[in-house]
Write a structure and sequence with these properties.
6 strands; 235 residues; 18% strand; alpha/beta; 6-stranded mixed sheet; 5 helices
Length: 235
């Protein structure tokens, strides 16, 4: 699990410049991919340091909708299910010293299931770190310019696009969604149940590590703020 403070530092330098306003019209097919069940859960969602608070339910609803909006447009003849586990987030808040340039981030894990085969395409869930889009409003940190709802929406939309890009790359490299002769794309209840259960099982990656990372991040952030205050007092 990436440490939250590392995410905050990475956000300053690696903020994703994504165009997320491109979901109108018919997309270029990804083999025979069609989205079946889109199951988003948050069994151990952790709020990072210096973050606004958001409920698990709001995160689940936001990410589910963003994935549906983007990925349900594909009309392939084979069904694949998503199991998405939301791991941690930072919704940058106002009031943080400008020198820290507060930005938002989201961590999730993705498992893709082949409906017909009834098995996972990726044995290990793919961890994806999502950063907010760099624009005129968020260049100095979205905590200063956007509401928590706007931040969550932007991160959810970027998450959907990163998932889209990742499965496209997997298809090109591993032929994930190639046509299977003689098989009809009929959703099975068993595969749907597995997709729903899998994320919760796979977030057993020690929660203690997440807690430790958050504690260390909070300590680092507090030290940075204290240093900034000391320097201001000296000056």
């Amino acid at each position: 699990m990436f440490r939250f403070f590392t995410i905050l530092l990475a956000a300053v330098f690696l903020t994703a410049c994504e165009n997320i306003d491109d979901i109108s019209g018919k997309p270029t097919p990804i083999g025979e991919f069609a989205l079946g069940h889109n199951v988003v859960v948050a069994p151990n969602l952790v709020m990072g340091p210096a973050s606004r608070e958001a409920s698990d339910e709001d995160w689940i609803a936001s990410v589910t909708k963003a994935i549906d909006d983007r990925l349900s447009r594909y009309e392939g003849e084979q069904l694949y299910h998503f199991g998405v586990s939301l791991e941690g987030y930072v919704l940058a808040q106002p009031g943080i010293p400008i020198l820290l340039s507060p930005k938002s981030a989201l961590i999730l894990k993705l498992t893709v299931w082949d409906d017909a085969a009834g098995k996972k395409l990726n044995e290990e869930p793919e961890q994806i770190t999502v950063l907010e889009t760099l624009d005129g409003d968020s260049f100095v940190g979205s905590g200063l310019t956007k509401t928590a709802e706007e931040q969550m929406l932007a991160l959810s939309e970027n998450a959907a696009k990163m998932i889209q890009r990742w499965i496209t790359r997997q298809h090109r490299q591993e032929k994930w969604f190639k046509r299977r002769a003689g098989e009809e794309p009929e959703a099975s209840e068993e595969a749907a149940e597995q997709a729903a259960e899998e994320p919760a099982a796979e977030v057993d990656e020690p929660l203690e590590q997440v807690d430790e990372a958050v504690e260390e991040a909070q300590a680092d952030l507090a030290e940075s703020v204290e240093t900034a205050e000391d320097e201001t007092a000296i000056n």
